[in-house]
Write a structure and sequence with these properties.
Structural class: mainly alpha
Radius of gyration: 27 Å
Distance between the termini: 87 Å
CATH architecture of the domain at 22-143: Alpha Horseshoe
CATH topology of the domain at 22-143: Serine Threonine Protein Phosphatase 5, Tetratricopeptide repeat
Shape: flat
Number of helices: 7
Order of helices and strands: HHHHHHH
Number of strands: 0
CATH class of the domain at 22-143: Mainly Alpha
Strand content: under 5%
């Protein structure tokens, strides 16, 4: 039984080593992101943007770095099973962002998925979205308002005349005696 378990473990190890998928310790792009990190980053950027915790320009910048890592991953492991779904998610992130450059990046991701994963559901979805067309989104009102609102200074301190309680007065300590 022990020999069978050892052989099964060896077979699984060899299958994983010869797999078309990127290993978890392989890193891509300038930010050196793993495939798992790329997927996670896309989801987090979308969530932070949708919840108004990240302005469009910040989301666009970080999406660009994540997209760079995605295309590096796709270049080195073109048969990775997660590339199709990740490309669709990247395109959806870009579709939510305002501006012509975001629209162009969404079109690039959808075109990539359509051309590289032709027989998959993701390629069909990408082709349908490209056929439908992707509009250039305007800057969202919440972002315009957020930029116009000054944020409080992080170094704001209470004034030196402020006391712990309204009626409290400082009691001098007695002078030391010799």
């Amino acid at each position: 039984m022990k020999i069978f378990a050892s052989l099964a473990l060896l077979a699984l190890t060899l299958a994983a080593a010869s797999s078309d998928n990127a290993p978890a310790d392989q890193y891509f792009g300038r930010l050196r992101m793993s495939a798992l990190r790329i997927r996670y980053e896309i989801a987090q950027l979308k969530s932070r943007y949708d919840n108004h915790k990240l302005l469009p320009e910040g989301a666009s910048h970080l999406a660009g770095l994540t997209g760079e890592a995605y295309y590096d991953w796709a270049g080195r492991f073109p048969k990775d099973g997660w590339l199709g779904s990740t490309g669709i998610n990247l395109a959806h992130l870009y579709e939510d962002l305002p501006g012509a450059s975001a629209r162009g990046a969404a079109m690039k991701a959808l075109t990539f998925v359509r051309s590289h994963f032709g027989s998959t559901h993701y390629a069909t979805q990408a082709a349908a979205e490209l056929q439908r067309g992707i509009a250039v989104k305007p800057d969202p009102l919440w972002a315009v308002k957020m930029r116009a609102t000054p944020s409080p200074s992080p170094s704001a301190r209470p004034s030196p005349n402020a006391s712990a309680s309204p009626g409290a007065t400082a009691t001098p300590s007695p002078a030391p005696t010799r």
